[in-house]
Amino acid sequence: MPGGWTLVAFAGNQNTACPTNTTRTEVYSGPSASNACSCSCGSTDPTCPTGPISVRWGFGGGNPSCPNAGVPASMNNASTCNTDMYSGAYNLALQYNPPAATGGSCGSASSNAAVSFSASDRECASACTGDCTPSFGAGWQVCVARAGNVACPTTTFTQPYVVGTSATYTCSTNGCQCGWKATCSGTMELFQGTSCGGTPLNVVADGTCNNANGAQFTTYSSYTYVPDAPSNVGCTPSGTSDPSFTLTNEQTICCSP
To answer: What are the boundaries of each domain within the chain?
Structure first.
C-alpha cells in the first residue's frame, strides 16, 4: 500500500453493494451545469453632469440650422451664475450639447442552474492495511484513494479518477460586457446681464438645433444650466459567463487497469 493512501473498491455506478468490511461513500465526477451562468448588469443609475456644455448657433425657422461654433465653443458651468459664454448677439437658433452621462455600474454574473455530473460512482473504503490482500469481487476495481487532486502513486495504480461528494460553482465575469445607454438633457437659462438677474430666455439643451424665439440679435452675458435626470436609461448585457467548479471533499482515486 503506498504511504498516505487508502485502499478502496471503486465502481462506476451507485447500484452495486459494497464488498464486506468496507465503508460506502457516494462520489461524483465531471461536474457541469447547463446555463449555470449568465451575464447581467448592475442597477446603479448614471448621472447627468452639469458641464461642460458645448454650443452652436445659426438660423431658425421651419428647419433650424446651427453650423457655427460658439466662442468659446464649450462652457464649464462652474458656478451658480456663469459668464464663460458667447456674449455677442444671438440669431434665431441655438444648439446646446449637454455632457454625456457618467457613473452607473455594469458587469456581474447570475447563477440559475443546479450542478449535474458526468458520472455517479461508489467508493468503498477497506479496513485492510499493510500487506493484506483484499477480495472485492466482480464489478469492483482495486484502487487507492487520497485527498486532493494529486498524481497517482505507483505504476500499479495508474488509472486516475478525481471525484467529490458534491460540487459547487462560481460564475466568471471576465467574458461579460455591459453597455450603458442614457440620455442627458437640461435647460440653458440665458440672462442679458452679467449676474443672472431678471427673466431668462430658456433654451432646451438636448443636442439638437432648436429655435430660440426671442433671441434674435439680443445679447446675453450670463447663464445658468439646469440638468435633467437621465432618461432612456438601460444597461444591455453581452458576452458569456462560465462556471468554475469546486468539488466538495475532493479526492483522487487511482485504480489498477
So the answer is: 6-37+112-175+242-255, 46-107+176-238
pLDDT (tens digit per residue) in 124-138: 998 776 666 667 888
Closest CA to 7 of 173, 256, 233: 256
CB 162 within 8 A of CB 255: no
What pLDDT digit, counting tens, does each position of 23-79 carry? 999 999 999 988 888 887 766 778 899 999 999 988 777 888 899 888 888 999 999
Q: Is 243 exposed, middle or buried (0-12, 13-18, 19+ CB in 10 A)?
A: buried
6 φ, ψ to 5°?
A: -115, 135
Residue 222, C-alpha cell as written in the block: 450670463
Residues 45 and 233 sit within 8 Å (Cβ to Cβ): yes
Closest-CA residue to 26 (of 117, 130, 134, 131): 117
- For residue 85, the 8-state DSSP code is S
Backbone angles phi, psi at 214, to 5 degrees: 100, -5
